[in-house]
Every structure is written in structure tokens, then in C-alpha cells.
Sequence to fold (68 residues):
Amino acid sequence: MPYGEITRLVLEHGFGFLRDDAGLDWFFVGAGVRGRAADLQIGQPVEFSAEWTASGPRAIDIHPAAER
Fold:
């Protein structure tokens, strides 16, 4: 499961972005977050699953990262 860090939250519009350990930026929607998207914070380490779409990479099943 990839690791990353929340880089931008636009919760009023229901989406955000994270950057993985390799430096790739991932788009996500609030429905792709385990729990509440409003609980996420910029800089927070997360784990996620990858989904490739016609618009680019999308993160799904986003949740706080376990200790590495």
C-alpha cells in the first residue's frame, strides 16, 4: 500500500491532494477517505490505494499511516 502526505485540502468542494513517497501528486475525493475527510490535516502521513483514471492518478481508501 503506498504512503504519502496530505498536501492540499479543498473540503468545501469535497476534494484534496496528497503526494506519495516518490513525489507523485494524487487527487482524491472525500468519499475516498476512511472516516471523515474533515479530520485530515495538511502534512498528515497517510496510506492509500491507487486508482488510475483518464484524468490521472486518484487515491482511494485513504487513512492515517501506521508507524513505519
